[in-house]
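quick one
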Amino acid sequence: MKIVDATVVVTSPGRNFVTLKIETDDGVSGLGDATLNGRELAVASYLRDHVVPLLIGTDPHRIEDTWQSLYRGAYWRRGPVTMAAIAAVDVALWDIKAKVASLPLYQLLGGASRERVRTYGHASGGSLPELFDAVRARIEQGYPAIRVQTGVPGLRRVYGVSGSPAVDPGLPAVEDWDTAAYLRHLPRVFEAVRAEFGPDLPLLHDAHHRLTPQQAARLGKELEPYDLFWLEDCTPAENQEGLRLVRRHTTTPLAIGEVFNTVFDYQTLVTEQLIDFVRSAVTHFGGVTPLKKLFDLAAPYQIRSAIHGPEDISPVGMAAAIHLDMAIHNFGIQEYAGYTDRTDEVFRRAFTFVDGHLHPGDTPGIGVELDEQAAAAHPYERSYLPVNRLLDGTVHDW
Ligand code: CS2
Ligand code: MG
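structure w/ D-mannonic acid:
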């Protein structure tokens, strides 16, 4: 069996998605997600200009060897553009292998370790009443766990709170930040949410890399009475040693890693058991092959999976995640933001979302097909993530 063609499809059914389609001489094809929010075309070019020529004529069954040759052979290792491109190839090859075997991918990864995949959804509000309404809406949708994000008094636009408009469409929105105001406000918000919704509902919060280790330690401690499922990305954890300080001071569980792209980003965090959940997406971590290895490394440290699943992971990347979630033993939870009808018209998917739980379906492969005509009706639209500034105008972490 040989790869005879590989094409990159960029489509924007409401937001941009980059998809790699690999075709074989047997007529079996596979899909991989290469979406890197705000830098989509860089990955499309990396694939089209540099990776596709290397794939033509090779054996699609040699997944490990192809991965290693793309990773080591480029000489320039790591980084989100490279790893998203490699991820797309890896997932497309797993899709092909599973289709040839006539099995859903999770069967090739060890088979089902559970009946269904537990998720969490997002609730956010500028004020407490808005936030409570958003939490109630998620509960009604069946979400068994909820991420809570809130406005901060004195700040106009804050991460994760809906309705942050870009002033110029096609250019980054600017968000405000004041760490002191946030640290004063957030514990009161969780106190109010617990008083309203009781002790049982698993609650999560994402600090989006904005704190120093000292600030994160203080926040973790102050949130302990509200029993969080996790505090996410409390610091920019490229400095892995910083988590030692956070860990020494709080028992609030910690989740980190959506911007990480190799095992080296996690080495200290995992081997010193400084975190509780690893957050990388299949799409940004080089695919199913390396993410499965990371979960296996994390397992003896009792660290569990929590695959990144925002709107900017395409249904292809999400499907790959759900297959992995089904198969690994140390599954924790899956983030799931859901998709619009327009996205579902472009990506026909076998996975289902019922009562707050995902199931990958039993279609051979990853179970997603791309409707290329529908995709072509939604061309790329330039778009950026927001930029975050302190009140004096200084750029801060986003
Ligand atoms: C977030 C994301 O889902 C999450 O936890 O941190 O929404 C993140 O901001 C985006 O995926 C960035 O592209
Ligand atoms: Mg996050």
